[in-house]
Specification:
alpha+beta; FAD/NAD(P)-binding domain; six-stranded antiparallel beta barrel; five-stranded parallel sheet; 19 strands; 26% strand
Amino acid sequence: MEVIVVGGGASGLLAAGVAARRGYRVTVVERNPRMARKVMITGKGRCNVTNACSVQDCVANTPGNGKFLYSAFSAFTPQDTMIFFEEQGVPLKTERGNRVYPVSNKAVDIVDALVSFARAQGCRFKTGRVTRLLLEDNVCCDVELETGETLQAYAVIVCTGGCSYPGTGSTGDGYELAQQAGHTVIPPRPSLVALNTVEDWCAELQGLSLKNCALTVYDTQTGKTVYTDFGEMLFTHFGVSGPIVLSASVHLHDAVEGRYTLSLDMKPALTPEQLDARLVREFDESHNACLGNLLSALMPRSMVPVILRLSGIAGETKCHSVSRTQRGRIVALLKNISLTVSGLRPFEEAVVTAGGVSTREINAKTMESKLVSGLYFAGEVLDIDAYTGGFNLQIAFSTGYAAGNHV
């Protein structure tokens, strides 16, 4: 009995190897000459392969339908992922935030391990693009390639990825295949992606990284707080990026211009009163200094002109001349610099894709379609997405394992 795995990425290779290990003849159809091209670029080429945390933490770090994955995460945990790669001869190490990497810091080692595992189980590999699922009496029986060739299948596992980094082959093919089978596809959108802002002063700070910044995201339509975080962010020529911004993007479901605003707190460890008291002390000690020079001690030098302009105070103003009201404006800016989101950066720059095949139409334990027998989905093609830290690859491994183990 032949199992066709459509897509040779992280979820596809693990699903293929697991299914073959159970005695099935498995063919992996991959459109690229090389397998798992997207895995090659994850973690800046180092490959953050998983997160050494509990199943509960995995679910909590998957805001996009994380509860759907409880069964899959439990059947193939982050610890199982680590054991798997160690057994494949890839030593691993755990870094800050429980992020797990190969000791070699080379993503290619993870890719080679996945390919070797599938080959060792007897999987065959075919270069091609599946463009059609052939259904008969609500059963998926064959697939058709772009060339017109038909491959017979006892079961089909679709692991085509999403739309992010389309240069690696993730161009949304799986969504069309799912719709052919009658599945609902939640409109895909970029996730874990940088944000464009209305304010053009971000470009003046291009390359500036704030290490200990607090970020709060507000929805102007509902008046509610969407997301809060603390950590590192980066100013760019188009707006903002960095770890806390990428995580925030997961929650921006309809990022039309003006809907979401960002509040940056550059001094999260201090209350406004404490920050004001510090300014008073600094002004008293350097009462003849120019305000612009003194502020350089409180923030990155490149940010001083921006803060002065937003506060409406001249940099040449002597500290002893700064009024209480002016001092209050400086404190308010340091505690709450507001930015308006004008949109998400494109799929070409997104780490993962949000949206995809509706999880309501998928069996959470087996990854089989509830609409068509013999059809399974795994990985990023599903409407599931998580924060950075190895969680998205763990989703790929857990759903791939579930599909391969239950096909």
